[in-house]
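Quick question: what would this complex look like in 3D?
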Amino acid sequence: MRTRDDDLNKTRSATILSAAGDCFVRNGFHSTSMKDICSAAGMSPGTLYHYFRSKADIIAGIVEGERAATQLILSRLTDAPDFMQALFMALEALAGSITERDLILHAEVSAEVLRRPELRVRARAADDEARDWLAAAIAEAQASGELARVLSAHEAAVCVLALIDGMLWRATLHEASDLGERLEPLKQALTRLLAEGQVPR
Amino acid sequence: MRTRDDDLNKTRSATILSAAGDCFVRNGFHSTSMKDICSAAGMSPGTLYHYFRSKADIIAGIVEGERAATQLILSRLTDAPDFMQALFMALEALAGSITERDLILHAEVSAEVLRRPELRVRARAADDEARDWLAAAIAEAQASGELARVLSAHEAAVCVLALIDGMLWRATLHEASDLGERLEPLKQALTRLLAEGQVPR
DNA sequence: ACCTGAACACCGTTCAAGT
DNA sequence: ACCTGAACACCGTTCAAGT
């Protein structure tokens, strides 16, 4: 009997998640068999099941990766003096780093999230985390007078996240490549939505 | 050899789509077997395949139903004199008629749409149709001075649809029942986004 | 044309057996 | 502990046969 090897565990898990993600993007969740993932990851079914207890568990791993990535971008929001500028920089960072693979994988994962109650709870927690973080930054900018107080900080945060999500979904539907094109109108929309002292015309 | 019976065809198709929708909402697309749909619709596999050529073809039928429902709501936008009022009435009609079943089914269907190229093309066309219809109404209201011209009519239409979609997705994630709660902030957000002469504070 | 149900190739998952 | 691959129950789809 050997002892648990945490390093190997992490490496293998990462390999499996990456291989599975590639398969899901190429063929979709439905049409990807465990055998496909095994081939892509270079291991047998038994080994794969040693690291992930089910196909759904692999999705859970991908969801957690997305949550971490979102939190990383949002965490940079608070240390800028100008909220709108910080938000725009975050959007540009997002537009610069997000790939078509990420977008398709996200859509792929989204349906599975609603389907499985455990995933749904985790996704809800991740969304609340993002909303609260954004709301805190907005509340601060409202207090300083930079942002309008028409919407509460929480309501505004939900609108911002909803708007960005809706834009990302559309970018995915209409070829992900035109995300850059949508950035400028999105910025203008966010300004109108949030900023105090609206641009006239 | 009998001749084709269009009435029967329509009835049976509707039965199958409804039964399949129920199954998808209850157990998800993955975990619904054709046998499940057959049981729910009260027919044998052979019969089901006589009306729909594949499981994906059933999804296509559901997508078409969603497109028609969206277009019905949007078609009422043009005959009102006040755009914002018409938009709000459309939103209330949406909030009043859409059920948790619709929302979950929509999410279920969305992933499948990205997966299958034929579905993706159709969904894109449906989205363009909605955007163009909305953009035409916005352009008119911009011309009359009711709406601001900061965003082009098309850009504004995309933002409106994105915002609503993002809200609907969140309502689905956080129990669909709280859609009503989100209506008021959504209206305020849309006003700030679109209307000329912003509310101060 | 419309319908049945057995049959086909394949799926996610398990498990006895190896190192 | 880590890994293999055969085996199990089940899946989407087809098709010969009936009316």
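Answer marked as accepted. Chain B touches chain A through 49 residues (CB under 8 Å).
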